[in-house]
Each structure stands twice: as structure tokens, then as C-alpha cells.
Design brief:
The structure holds two protein chains of two kinds. By secondary structure, chain A is α+β, with helices and mostly antiparallel strands. Chain A is built from 20 helices and 21 strands. In chain A, α12 runs antiparallel to α14 and α18 packs antiparallel against α19. Chain A is globular, with a radius of gyration of 28 Å. The chains are: A alpha+beta, B mainly alpha.
């Protein structure tokens, strides 16, 4: 053989495995910063996110990914009880819950707790964080109402505070200019003293209180907004339990403990939670964790691998992993399989959301055939869909209100429509369409093009064809779907709603006449009795009288069938055994400030999992 | 040659204008409404109008197009709808990360593929050649996703040789990039080797090779001195034209290994209807593609003096 070739080809043959080895050699591995922290005795918690925050400026965002970080760094005037269900508001930065001070129930006084400080930052004099005062509350409200700042969450207070809509209209006219908040006032917001402001509502209304627990209404220091300008979105300066230590798009977010945080661990809990040992730290200064690492992990596989390795402390479980790791019991509870139960704990909590099928009442056919709408509702076997599509991770809905919100089907003793294909057939005969003869083929609009949407449709089609109703699907992107809904040019459409606040009103408003498309009432349902009941319950506190109205509204929905109620999803997840104080509170997606870990147990388990 | 380059640069102007018009029309007339995506189900007519105004989408269409052209000329593509970040900053951050993910295994992979292809060309139609071709075709039949999922599971999780995923800026990133590099090299090895082997074999049947052999040149001399040089033109075409796409990163790789490159950025932009990002990225890639095409032509003349640029 040619000597030159042998020499060169040997070199090459040597080079190939060598280069593969070099590119894959294990000395690339290093001890993670989290592990270093744990070994130093710090309480280091590791979590993940599936997408990046869009902005850490509370008033400029309204998405979960941003809200989850903002909640750690900033605080709101009110918040939800951590260990109480149904979800209940409590004072947070405020000294006490606001109570109406006039007979018309429109005047409120908001008084801050004393001694709440912003974290130290260069924006303050001498770099020392100053005490929060009533000017900060006024600044927060003005910035929230500024049309040039807040494009997405203004609906939370729209039409509720005297003069706020007019103020917003003025800011809209000053578009593109830097608005001097000192020269523009909201009529209904007045300073009383260093810690108090008065708030005047346009009409009696208790829903405004929920807005004060939402992250867009977090208290921000004016000095930081003015010093950092656009960069304020990524330089948060708050009063919250944690301080943002490091952030990069797609990289790990690191939060460190705010040693001057003002709040303590709750002393009130439901019996169920108390018996789980969730009050062990009652009254203790918060936060309990020293550091939080939040990795960006959009895909399920690396997320679960990291969790199983112990490199993530808490993870939501997708359908495939749920089937592999857990089972649903006949009583509706969930159990982790034995192989996993030694290392992990399972939680399951109904989400504050519901899914439904909207029927367009403006449609010339479906709008006038109530019996056909009812037949469709009776023909759908929701138990089967829950089993096949959700692996049991959902509950059937009897009313429009999810099961963990006060006023749900159990609270009002409502008897819902049930799966009854024979009844559906009878209804079709009564409507003049025996076995579906003479019925047009209906199109169902989907808000996604995924395999899940297709599977969902196939099950629905099978159910409906059993009674003689023919349907076809139109799978589209979410934006295209919204456009279709706005135009009211559809017959049946998939729908879902996630609570903006945990009150039944937020769900009953989906069928309020004046909210018709392009509002949230996509069915364009407009029933005088329903509307008047809604206007009544809107500003009421939960009471037997309010529940009686809910019951009648639920009956109207079953009689008229503007929507077909489907499911209340159940959020299922796993946490490592060393995680303490965890409670899946749906109004607080990531309750880091209450959570704790057993460092010794975590280190031992990490060592064990790596070496076995 | 300078006149040729100038002429080609001038030709690029109408091409880029055409691409700009096409991109603008696609996103404006056929794309989803970004305002509706952002507001979701909380859209009221005044909220929609307000956001349209903030994003400049209430301007007449021709003014929006002129703004887009200005952005192309000034290389200032404005800010992302969803994060408010400057697109130029996002691009610079993302491009470096994507290149650090794709460029090393790209260069590495080509070198290895050329080496293997030369060996296979030397042993053409032997057992080694047949076996290698069988393995190559088999490896090409497996989906990219399978490589990622299985190698991440086996090498990172089961054998604990690499971190499962992650990224840190600077030199620290190398720790996290080893496994993605390895996968990219393995995935590219099959198709590249197959193409290069074919190119080498085509060259070996050329007249000049026969002449060289007739003159008594050894097989290695023929392969390394003659065939390799002449096969470089199609190799360069294949390679240089692929360079702009390196910046796009490897979508799947970036997602599975949580590497914050341009690929991950584009997926997020598609999901969120972030049109400034999509328009900007598409335009930048189109411009780069034109430039790299020109570069390929210029490189031809260096590799093969017979090619004259006129």
C-alpha cells in the first residue's frame, strides 16, 4: 500500500475517535453552583420555567412567566391566604382590609403597614432603600392607569375608580411623551397622610379588591423607574421576599433572600393543611430559603430527567409522565406508584380554569334550535374524554364555576346535565331531526393545531355521530381563533377561561349580554333574566342570597345551552421529599417565600442518586 | 474582480427589496394579528386600539413598509413587541450563542467527514466501503429528535457524563455545549460523508486522474494532491452557503438543551406573534445569504485559478 496514504489515513483514523472523545469527554462536568451553595449550608431551592419573563416591570406585563418572578421581588397591597380554601384575600402591604367609609359604599381608605422598605439600590439616596409611603401607592395607580405603560391589564380596574378612565384617556393623548405624573391626577385617588390614601369608586363594588392582589398592581419606587428608564424592565427594585441576583434570557434566574422582608409565615390554616404540618413555621420571619435557581427548561424530557436526578425540587407532571408514575383511584384521588413514592410526593389541585364548547347564538341555525344545542350537550361523554385525553387529570363541570371557587356546583346544590345519548336522540326527534336527518354538518373551531386538539375532536365526533350529529373541525392558531370569535362567524368553538380572580362572577360574566363578542361572551348569549341576576351578584359578597342567584343562573345555562360545560383541569405535580411547606395555591403559582428545604436530606439524596 | 464584486453588490439591492416586500406582505396580510395574540381574551376595542397605536400598527400600510425599509438600511430593527428589548441587542446576544453551538461541530464535522470520505473513496467497493455506506444510510434514516432524546438520556442522565441541559455565558458554556456538539457532529457525519465520498469518486474518474495514474502517481498522491483540490469547489459551495444558517442555531438542540440562541428566540417569537423579531431575523438571514453566495463565488477563484470572475 502507498506509504503516504497509510501515514495520512492512520492520522485521520486516529483523529476521528480522538475528536469524538474530546468533544464528549466527561471532564466537561463541573460541580453546580447550587450544590456548592448547599454544601455551604445554604437553603438552595431549584426550580424551572418553560418560558422567559417578558418584562419584570409589573405594570408592563400580564403573563404567568413574568408574574412568577415579579411576585418574588415586588409586593401587592393585598394577597391570598396561603393555607385557606376557598381562596380568600387578606391584607399584605396594607395594615388591614379596606372597608367602605361612606353610606354609598364607594369610599375606601387604604393604609400601609409601617416599616416596609425597598431593597437597597443605587436609585435611592446613599443607596439605602427607603420606607414605602402613600405617594408610592398613588404612583402605582397612576402608572397602572397610564395607557403608554400598561396595555394589557387595565381591565382589572376599568370603570371602577372615579376619574381613572378619564386619566387614562388623557395619557393616551400624550402618547410618545414622558408623562409628568405630578401634573395629572386621578379624581378618585387622594393622599390622606404619609401612610394612607382614599379611593373613591364609581359605584359600590367589591371586585376592585381583587385587583390589589394582582402583580400589575405591585408597588414600585418612582426613583428606580426614573433612573433606569427602559432598563427598569430588567432591574427590579422592590420590597419582596427575594432580590433578583442574576437574569439572562434563556439562562438561570437567581434570586437571593431579602433579609429585610417584612412578612411572617401564616398562623391561619384550614384543618386539612394544619394536619399536614404546614403550620410548623407559623409566625416565623420570611423568607425561609436563601437562594432560588430557576432554570429555563422548555422541554419535558430534560425537565423530568433533572427532577429525577434531584436537580429540580418541584415539577408539574405532563400526561405521559403521569401515566408512568401515578394512578387515579376510584375515589378521584391520585397515588404515586411505589417505585417513586419513596423519593417524591404527589400533589393534585383543581386549576382555576374551565373548558367548554361555545355555541354561537348568532348562527342562523344553532341560534334558534335550543333542543339541538341541548342534544349536543347530552351526547358528549365527558368521563370518557377525561379518561382518554387527560388520564383522569380533570373533573367534569356541572356549572360554569371551577370546583375550588366559592359558589361552585356543590355549594349551590346544582344538578347538571348528564351524558344521555338516548335523551339526546329524543331531543333531536322533538326538534324535527330524527337520527340527525336534516341537520347541517357543524364546524367546531379549535384554538390550536396540536395533536391534542385533533384527539379531542375525534372523540367529540364519535360521541356526536352516535346520535346522528355530524361535525367537522377547523384547527387554527390561537390568533386566528380569536379573530373568528371576534367576528362571531362560527357555529361551535372550543373555549377555556382561567380566573383573573377567584370569584364566581369572573366566570358568570362570560355569558353576560353586554360582554358579547369581541368581549368574552363569545356565544353572544343575551338573556334578560340572566343579565339582571348577573348585575345583582356582581357586587355582592358570597351569601345564601348570592348562591341562590348562582343556582338560577346555572339553570338558565342548562335550559338555554349557550355553552356546553366540559372540564375543570387538575394540576398534578411532584416535589422532592426534602421540600417543606409546599401547598399548591392556584392564586400564587410559585409560593417560594413560604417554602423551605431540608438541606441535609437534599445533600444525602443527591449523593445517593448520582452514585446509584 | 473588484468590478465583479461591486456589480454583484448592486444586484443585491433589488433582491433584498423584493425579499423585504415579500416578508412585509406575508407578515402584514397573512400573519396572525400580534395585538390579538398579546391581549388574548382580555381584548376590548379600546385596548386593541391602544396597543395598535403603541406598536405603530395603526399607521397606513405604506408608512409601515417605509419604516421597515428604513430599518433595513439602518440595521435598526426596532424593539420586540413582547419584551421591548432592542432587536439588535437580542440578535447580537443570540447569534453568538447560536454560533458557539453550531460553528465548532460544523467545522469539526466537515473535517471528519472529508477524512472518512477520502478513506472510503480509497477503499471504494470494498467491504469497508459497503459497511460504511450501510451505517451512513442507517444513521441518516434516524430522526434528529431520536438522537437528541436518546443521547441526552443515556450519556447525560444514565451515565452522568455531561450536564443534562443548561447554559452559562463565557467559557463556562463549554461544559454545557459538549453533548450538543457531539450530537451535531454525529448527525451531520452521515449526509456529509455520503456527499463528499460521491464528489471524490466523481473526480477519480476524471481524465486528469487517469493521466496522473498513467504517469505513475501513487493512489495517495492522486487523492490528496489532485482529487481533494478539485473536489473542493462543490465542497465549498455546500459549506459556505450553510454558514448563514449556523446563526439560526439548531432549533431542537436549543430547546432540548435550553441554549438561548437565535433558534429558541425565533420559536418564542412565532408563538407570541412577535413580528419585529421574525421580520428582522428573516431579513438579516436573507441579507447574509446573499453575501455568502457572493463569497462562495469569490472563493472559487482562489481555489481554482481557472475560474475567472468577470
Amino acid at each position: 500500500m502507498d506509504k503516504l496514504f497509510v501515514k495520512k489515513s492512520r492520522l485521520m483514523l486516529l483523529f476521528i475517535p480522538l475528536s469524538l472523545f474530546l468533544s464528549g469527554c466527561p471532564w466537561g462536568k463541573k460541580t453546580s453552583a447550587e450544590l456548592v451553595g448547599l454544601r455551604e449550608g445554604k437553603k438552595v431551592f431549584t426550580y424551572y420555567r418553560t418560558s422567559d419573563p417578558k418584562s419584570l416591570d409589573p405594570m408592563r406585563q400580564f403573563d404567568a412567566a413574568s408574574g412568577n418572578i415579579i411576585q418574588q421581588v415586588y409586593d401587592t397591597l393585598l394577597e391570598y391566604e396561603y393555607l385557606v380554601r376557598p381562596y380568600t384575600l387578606k391584607p399584605y402591604m396594607l395594615e388591614k382590609m379596606p372597608v367602605a367609609t361612606n353610606a354609598e359604599l364607594t369610599e375606601y381608605t387604604l393604609t400601609l403597614r409601617k416599616g416596609i422598605y425597598f431593597t437597597d439600590d443605587a436609585c435611592f439616596k446613599d443607596g439605602k432603600g427607603r420606607e414605602v409611603n402613600s405617594d408610592d401607592m398613588i404612583y402605582m395607580l397612576k402608572r397602572f392607569a397610564d395607557a403608554n405603560v400598561n396595555a394589557q391589564s387595565y381591565f382589572l380596574l376599568k370603570g371602577m375608580v372615579l376619574g381613572m378612565d378619564e386619566y387614562r384617556a388623557q395619557t393616551e393623548k400624550l402618547s410618545g411623551q414622558t408623562i409628568n405624573y405630578d401634573s395629572l391626577d386621578i379624581t378618585g385617588v387622594k393622599k390622606i397622610d404619609r401612610y394612607s390614601i382614599s379611593l373613591t369608586l364609581t359605584s359600590p363594588n367589591l371586585l376592585f379588591l381583587y385587583a390589589f392582589a394582582a402583580s400589575p398592581l405591585s408597588v414600585v419606587p418612582r426613583e428606580a423607574v426614573e433612573k433606569y428608564g427602559d432598563d427598569f424592565a430588567w432591574k427590579p427594585v422592590g420590597t419582596g421576599p427575594f432580590i433578583l441576583q442574576s437574569f439572562g434570557k434563556g439562562q438561570t434566574i437567581i434570586l437571593r433572600k431579602n433579609p429585610n422582608f417584612f412578612d411572617t409565615y401564616p398562623t391561619v390554616a384550614d384543618k386539612e393543611f394544619e394536619s399536614q404540618g404546614l403550620l410548623k413555621n407559623a409566625g416565623q420571619k420570611l423568607p425561609l430559603l436563601d437562594l432560588i435557581y430557576i432554570h429555563s427548561i422548555p422541554e419535558a424530557q430534560p425537565r423530568m430527567l433533572k427532577f429525577r436526578r434531584g436537580e429540580i425540587d418541584w415539577v408539574a407532571v405532563d400526561r405521559d409522565n403521569f401515566t408512568k408514575m401515578a394512578t387515579k383511584n376510584s375515589d378521584g384521588t391520585f397515588t404515586l406508584k411505589e417505585r417513586y413514592s419513596k423519593s417524591y410526593s404527589l400533589y393534585a389541585e383543581p386549576a382555576l380554569s374551565m373548558s367548554y364548547l361555545a355555541i354561537n347564538l348568532k348562527d342562523p341555525f344553532l341560534g334558534k334550535h335550543t333542543l339541538v344545542r341541548k342534544a349536543i350537550a347530552k351526547a358528549i361523554d365527558r368521563d370518557l374524554t377525561i379518561d382518554l385525553l387527560f388520564n383522569g387529570r380533570a373533573e367534569k363541570l356541572g356549572t360554569i364555576v371551577p370546583l375550588t371557587i366559592a359558589g361552585n356546583e356543590h355549594d349551590i346544590s346544582h344538578t347538571p346535565l348528564t351524558y344521555d345519548p338516548e335523551g339526546a336522540k329524543k331531543l333531536l326527534i322533538k326538534a324535527g331531526f330524527p337520527d340527525g336527518k336534516g341537520l347541517p354538518e357543524f364546524t367546531i373551531e379549535y384554538r390550536g393545531t396540536t395533536a391534542d386538539s385533533r384527539r379531542n375532536f375525534e372523540l367529540l365526533r364519535a360521541n356526536l355521530s352516535d346520535v346522528g350529529i355530524k361535525v367537522k373541525s377547523n384547527l387554527q392558531t390561537f390568533a386566528a381563533y380569536l379573530k373568528t370569535m371576534d367576528s362571531s362567524k362560527y357555529e361551535i368553538a372550543e373555549g377555556a377561561w382561567r380566573a383573573d380572580y377567584p370569584d364566581a362572577e369572573n366566570f358568570y360574566q362570560l355569558l353576560y349580554g353586554p360582554n358579547a363578542a369581541p368581549g368574552p361572551n363569545n356565544s353572544n348569549f343575551d338573556n334578560a333574566e340572566y343579565n339582571s341576576l348577573y348585575e345583582k351578584i356582581r357586587y355582592m359578597q358570597n351569601s345564601p342570597e348570592r348562591y341562590a342567584s348562582f343556582k338560577r343562573m346555572a339553570e338558565i345555562i342548562d335550559e338555554e345551552v349557550p355553552i356546553i360545560l366540559l372540564y375543570n383541569p387538575i394540576a398534578v405535580g411532584l416535589q422532592q421529599k426534602w421540600v417543606k411547606n409546599f401547598n399548591r395555591n392556584m392564586m400564587m403559582d410559585v409560593p417560594f417565600k413560604y417554602m423551605d428545604i431540608d438541606v441535609k436530606q437534599k445533600l444525602e439524596a443527591l449523593d445517593d442518586r448520582v452514585h446509584n | 474582480m473588484i468590478a465583479y464584486i461591486i456589480r454583484r453588490l448592486l444586484y443585491m439591492i433589488p433582491i433584498i427589496l423584493g425579499v423585504a416586500l415579500l416578508i412585509f406582505c406575508l407578515f402584514t396580510f397573512f400573519g396572525d394579528d400580534p395585538v390579538r395574540v398579546a391581549l388574548g381574551q382580555h381584548a376590548s376595542p379600546d385596548a386593541i386600539a391602544n396597543l395598535q397605536h403603541l406598536w405603530g400598527l395603526d399607521k397606513p400600510i405604506y408608512l409601515q413598509f417605509i419604516d421597515f425599509l428604513k430599518q433595513i438600511v439602518t440595521f435598526d430593527y426596532g424593539v420586540s413587541f413582547s419584551t421591548g428589548q432592542k432587536l439588535s441587542d437580542m440578535f447580537m446576544e443570540g447569534a453568538f450563542v447560536s454560533l458557539s453551538l453550531t460553528a465548532p461541530p460544523f467545522v469539526f464535522g466537515i473535517f471528519i467527514s472529508i477524512s472518512i470520505a477520502l478513506i472510503l473513496a480509497y477503499y471504494r467497493d470494498s467491504f469497508i466501503d459497503h459497511m460504511a455506506r450501510f451505517i451512513i444510510i442507517m444513521s441518516m434514516s434516524i430522526s434528529y429528535l431520536v438522537y437528541i432524546i436518546s443521547l441526552q438520556y443515556v450519556l447525560a442522565y444514565e451515565l452522568d457524563l455531561f450536564p443534562i441541559m443548561g447554559y452559562e455565558p463565557g467559557l463556562e458554556s463549554i461544559t454545557y455545549l459538549f453533548l450538543p456538539w457531539l450530537i451535531i457532529v454525529i448527525v451531520a457525519l452521515g449526509p456529509n460523508t455520503r456527499i463528499f465520498r460521491t464528489l471524490f469518486l466523481e473526480e477519480t474518474s476524471a481524465d486528469y486522474v487517469r493521466t496522473a495514474r498513467a504517469k505513475g502517481a501513487g493512489e495517495a498522491r492522486v487523492l490528496f494532491k489532485h482529487v481533494l483540490k478539485n473536489a473542493l469547489i462543490p465542497i465549498i459551495t455546500n459549506t459556505v452557503v450553510a454558514i448563514p444558517f449556523l446563526i439560526l442555531g439548531a432549533f431542537l438542540m436549543e430547546r432540548f438543551f435550553s441554549i438561548p440562541g437565535i433558534g429558541a428566540m425565533i420559536i418564542t417569537a412565532i408563538n407570541e406573534g412577535d413580528f419585529p423579531v421574525l421580520k428582522g431575523m428573516t431579513m438579516i438571514i436573507a441579507i447574509m445569504y446573499s453575501f455568502f453566495n457572493l463569497l462562495t463565488d469569490v472563493l472559487y477563484s482562489f481555489v481554482d485559478p481557472r475560474v475567472k470572475l468577470s
